[in-house]
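Running this now, will post back.
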Amino acid sequence: MHPQNLSAPSKVSRIANDGFELVASPETGRVTAYGPIGGPNFLWHNPRALETPVPFPGWSNWGGDKVWIWPEEDWAKWNPGAKHPPGDPCATPHQIERDGLSLRMISPVVPAYGVQIVREISLEPTGSRVTFLNRLEKVCHGQLSLPVGVWTVTQIPAPAKIFARLCAHAEAPGYESFPGTCWPNVKSEGGIITLPRPSSPWQKIGLEADALSLQLGEHLFSVETSAELNATGPYAPCRRAQVFSDPDDSSFRLPGTPPYIEFEFTSPVKALEIGESVSLGVTWQILLRTR
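Update: finished.
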């Protein structure tokens, strides 16, 4: 499976060095493209998002990379009756500030939580390495005072296999399938978990991992957390990293739109006072696969 070509949104912000580029959309609050200049997009993109059936009424699966608010189990407590993820879609576009090889994305206030999602994104002067500092910043009182965390969700064209690097001192086996699912043929060797992607049904697995990677064409796409940028505190067991596999026969994807997987990372949670924040650092890199 090769990465997709992108039909770019009409309004975007772009940063680029001499070889790689990253594109963000203020309307959708997402990073929509990442890859070599003139080459394929390493992020999954849904060109027919507004026509596509979705599991959350009022929400559109645009693809790309986004930040949600963790934990998912608390969504209904914050905003009873709401079906879609809080803050997505947003009432107004994100602000995007560009400075050289850096972007700063700021979401509208998520009313029930009283937080803004702030993303500081930097591309290295050479090479493919991108650093994200993702924060939830408390700017006003919300409806409740439950602890919150950052949840990054990166959608990528579906590969044959996914690889996860377990954290140091992770307790065996270091992973567990989500309730109602059972990821088949999981292999563990030397601190590396190999996940052959099932074609059907949908699957989700949680891992005590700090790095996820996959092969797309001749390249290796790596996503990992940056411990020095992350909030301190305990992580939910087997929820630090998560992988979701969209099935080939999904009813939530129109014909001709290929399947995807998701690389997800969460931060520890924190009850925020106004002026406080919780953060999660993530880095991306594209490497040419060696034979």
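The helical segments are 75-78. More later if anyone needs it.
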